[in-house]
Each structure stands twice: as C-alpha cells, then as structure tokens.
Design a protein that fits this description.
heterodimer, A: alpha/beta, 12% strand, B: alpha/beta, five-stranded parallel sheet, 54% helix, globular, magnesium ion binding (chain A), UPP_synth-like_sf (chain A), UPP_synth-like (chain A)
C-alpha cells in the first residue's frame, strides 16, 4: 500500500517556486502555511523519529547564489536552525543533534572561524532567552569544547546548566566534533577507568564503547534518521558509529532554504519506510 | 535510424508487463478490503485515490527505467565517457536477505568489472557474502577463462566483510590499546589520537581503505553497520532493491560521484 502522504509529498514538488526568505533570513509572515498544515496532518505520532541528526550544509553556497557575503549565509542558517529546533519540539521529536562545526572546519580562514564562533554564541544566547525558557528545550554541546573560545565555552556551560532540568526536546549542538575522535575518546575514558580500578574488565566490547560516546547524554543516543541538506551524500565524519541503522534523507535544498515543509517531507519519508516495515530490524 | 539493442528492449518490455500485473494485484487486494467494511462509499473513495497514487508511481518507475535503458544503451552521450579512475575503492552494501541472491550479486560484480573498477568491498550484516565469497571469486575467474573478453582483460580485488569487521573490530583495537598503553605499560600513558586507533586496527588485521563511494542495495536507506571507522567522506547512494538493479542506474550513480567536488570541511 502506498500511503497518501507520499502522494501529497510528490505532488507538492510540482508546484511553482515557494516563498523566499529575505536576505536576513527572516520568513515572510504566513509563508506556505497551508502547505505546512496539510503535511502536518499526515504525520503519525506513533512513527515519529525519537532522535533526528542534522548536517546543516550549504550556508556559504546560499549566500554566494544571492551575491551576499558568506557571513550572511551563516546568519540565515542560524535563524533557520532556531526555527527548525522549534518545529522539531512542536512535532514531538525528543532529540535533535545538529552538526554545527567539524574538526575539519578549523582549516577555514581565521575570519570565518571567528565569525562562526560569534554566531554560535549569539545563537546559544537567543536559544536561552526564547526556546529554553518558553518551550522547555534542553541544550547540550558535544565535541572538543576545549578548542572553542572561552566566551563560547562559558555560554555553553551556562546554557547547559540553566536547561538541565528541562523536559522538552533535547537539542544537542556538535561543535569541533569528529566521529572518529568520539570513538577514540570513548576508548580513552574506558581505559582510564580500568587503570584507576573503577571499572573491572579485561575486555572492552561494543556496548562499553557506546556507553562512553559523546551522544550518550540523552535518552536516545542513536539517531533514527539523518537529514543532510545541500545535495551532498556523505556523513563528513559525523556520528559515524551512531548512524549505523539511521535512515538517511539527503535534501538538495541549501540549509537556509530548508524550512518546516522540507522537514515534514523528510519525516514523512521516514514514516513511510518505518510503517511499511522497511526499517532495519537490526536496531 | 536508431540502432536498437533488442535484448535490452525485450528485458524492458518484460519489466513493463510485470509492473502492470503487480498493479492489478494491488487493485484486487483493495477490492477485497472494500467488501469487508460497511462504509462502501468511503472505501471506494480510498480505492480511487490509491489507484491514482499507484498510477503516478508506475509512471515515475517507467520514466526511471526508460532513462536507465537509454544510459546503458549508450544513447545519452554524457554517460559514455566515464572517468572510472576517480572511484579508487567502491563499497557495495547489501541487505542480508538480498545477499542470498548470489546470481544477482555475481551479475553486479560482472558489471563493475566490465566498467573497469579494480577494488570492490562487499558488505552485508550477517556475513552471507562471506560464505559465498569463494564461489563468487571462482565464477568471476571462470568467466574470464571461458572467453568473456571484457571480464578476462580486467581483474577485481574483492574484499568481503560483515558486521564483525565494524564495531567489533574497533572494540578489539581499543583492547589492543588498553593492553599496550594502560595495563602493561611502564612509561607514561600517551594522549591517544585517531592515528593510534588507525594503527591499532592495522596491527590486528583490520586495516582497509575508506571507500570513495558506497552503493546500498536493499529496502533500507542506511548503511547497516558498515565499518564506521571507514566512512568519513564516503559518498552514499541508495540504489533500491538488488532484484531491480539496472546497469544504467549504476552508471548514473558512479558518474554523479565523479562530478562531485569535496571540500573536506574547508
């Protein structure tokens, strides 16, 4: 049986071009509201993914297409991330892990890195003021935090502490993160525990490594699905261990253009596969 | 006048016939459901909607298959000159149920050999392919010996792995590092890095290249536990079920990879 939701998803892709954001990344009022309401109606709460991983790719290309500076692309991306976090919270998703900055990104220009770090700090502060206090969202950051500027580290600690008891969506931001390093750090933690005598074991196994991975801070450490924007079809060293059985959804949209409708389409695609029994029973 | 490949055309027409029969089966099942419910009007409406959706997807499948046929028959010029040297290492991930179809797997390997690929890694979670690895290698060699000129001229380095070569291997490497640096060590414990883990994997026999491209055959759009350590920058393409694999779709996926430019985070 082919669910009606897929029919509507495919038909909507034939419609003419959608409303566009302003150059500062703000949504015009009421943009595509009817489309969003229609798609929301087809999603089934029973098959909603508990944990969604997100690779936010395409900010620079989005800016270049519009003749803007790369910084404008990152600003638009930041605004869009806040909306998507809010959307995920509303949809009942329990955990959202967003890949904000990889260890490879440290090879970018100093100016771009400095701008990105400032953007992250502003994002976390606006998250604290809005989504955490009004929507009960919990915030965490994973990655090599020691490499981040002190002011950003301080903002992260403050936000984590303030939202520690929040019960809503757990929003995790991966900054200076490497999937391989995540595994190495897990191995180091276990080895140090054995050395100190706090862990009695002669053999490390997969389960022990999984316990010590950075994503083991939430109730659902392994993502059910991964969304990557901008048409790229790879993991880029993100949650490689954790994504073994996650459904992949690769969107051609650049991240600042990936709105609520696109999120709903991604979720509908996931739900179709789960409800049709295509989900791997290896989980 | 177009010089048509009639073998390909006959295969294509047989596929159309099977899709039409499949559509008929679905309509039959829907019809049975109507009579089991009291609300005839509502289920009739559902049936009509279902029919429209099925026709739509049939049309989409038809277009995809036509494209694949045109690509494999050489009518689409942009697919003729494929720079296969960019794909230094190809991974093929198969659902374990799909992997039981050894003839289909062999056909896929034959296509890859003919295209000029040298290094292929086959993966399925349960190790079904490991059990049939010898048979696959023997068949490929015998086809070369029996005069299949294209296969004979080329060779394939075939790696076959399963779930135990993934997370389990990393756990073993972690044990290796634990014993080397923490348990039996007299010197100061070093700050372990990704290179140390990579070296440990090599020491215990799990050193293998990172695939440039991964093709996933099966209903599920995930990599089913392929060794995570090797997936940093691998392009991942979902190809659909193995039983409906098409040569044209394979060429299209590989060509798309050769056009990609990776920034590696910079």
């Amino acid at each position: 049986m082919i669910p009606l939701v897929l029919f509507h998803n495919s038909m909507s892709s034939l419609k003419p071009c959608r409303a566009t954001k302003t150059t500062t990344g703000e949504w015009p009022n009421g943009a595509r509201e009817n489309e969003v309401i229609r798609l929301r109606g087809y999603l089934n709460q029973e098959f909603m993914p508990k944990h969604v991983a997100l690779i936010m790719d395409g900010n620079g290309r989005w800016a270049k297409k519009r003749g803007l500076a790369v910084q404008d692309g990152h600003k638009s991306g930041r605004i869009n991330l806040k909306y998507l976090t809010y959307n995920c919270s509303n949809l009942g998703i329990k955990m959202l892990t967003a890949y904000a900055f990889s260890t490879e990104n440290w090879n970018r220009s100093r100016m771009e890195i400095a701008f990105l770090m400032t953007t992250f700090e502003e994002f976390i502060q606006s998250l604290v003021e809005d989504l955490m206090t009004r929507h009960d969202i919990r915030f965490s950051a994973i990655g090599e935090k020691s490499r981040l500027p002190e002011s950003l580290q301080s903002a992260i600690s403050k936000a984590e502490e303030m939202s520690r008891t929040n019960k809503g969506l757990h929003f995790v931001m991966a900054m200076s993160y490497s999937g391989r390093n995540d595994v190495v750090e897990a191995a180091k933690i276990i080895a140090k525990k054995v050395e100190r005598g706090t862990l009695q074991t002669s053999e490390i196994d997969e389960a022990m490594l999984e316990q010590e991975l950075m994503t083991n801070i939430g109730q659902f450490p392994n993502p059910d699905m991964l969304i990557r924007t901008s048409g790229e079809l790879r993991l880029s060293n993100f949650l490689m261990w954790q994504l073994a059985y996650s459904q992949f959804y690769f969107s051609d949209k650049l991240f600042p253009d990936f709105g609520e409708e696109d999120l709903l389409e991604a979720l509908a695609s996931y739900q179709y596969r789960v409800s049709a029994g295509f989900e791997s029973d290896w989980k | 006048m177009l010089d048509m490949d009639f073998v390909h055309l006959a295969t294509f027409l047989r596929w159309i016939e099977s899709k039409a029969l499949d559509l008929g089966d679905r309509m039959q099942k829907g019809y049975k459901r109507i009579w089991s419910s009291g609300d005839l009007g509502l289920y009739l409406l559902w049936l009509i909607m279902h029919l429209i959706v099925s026709i739509w997807y049939f049309a989409v499948d038809l277009v995809n298959s036509l494209e694949s046929y045109l690509i494999s028959s050489g009518f689409m010029k942009q697919y003729k000159d494929l720079d296969i040297s960019k794909v230094r290492y190809l991974a093929v991930v198969l659902d374990s149920e799909e992997a039981l179809d050894t003839m289909k797997v062999l056909e896929l390997l034959r296509w890859l050999t003919v295209m000029g690929l040298r290094n292929v890694c086959l993966y399925d979670p349960e190790g079904v392919l490991k059990r049939s690895k010898d048979a696959l290698s023997l068949w490929l060699r015998s086809e070369g010996a029996n005069g299949d000129a294209l296969v004979k001229q080329k060779y394939l380095n075939l790696e076959v792995i399963s779930f135990t070569d993934g997370k389990h291997a990393v756990a073993k490497a972690a044990n290796f590092l634990l014993k080397k640096h923490y348990v039996n060590a007299d010197a100061e414990v070093p700050e372990l890095t990704e290179s140390d883990m990579a070296d440990a994997l090599a020491e215990i026999g799990y050193a293998a290249p990172e695939p440039d491209l991964m093709l996933i055959y099966g209903p599920v759009r995930c990599h089913l536990g392929f060794p995570a350590w090797r997936l940093r920058y691998t392009e991942i393409v979902h190809m659909g079920p193995l039983k409906s694999m098409k040569y044209g779709a394979l060429i299209k996926a590989i060509r798309r990879y050769t056009m990609v430019r990776q920034n590696y985070g910079t």
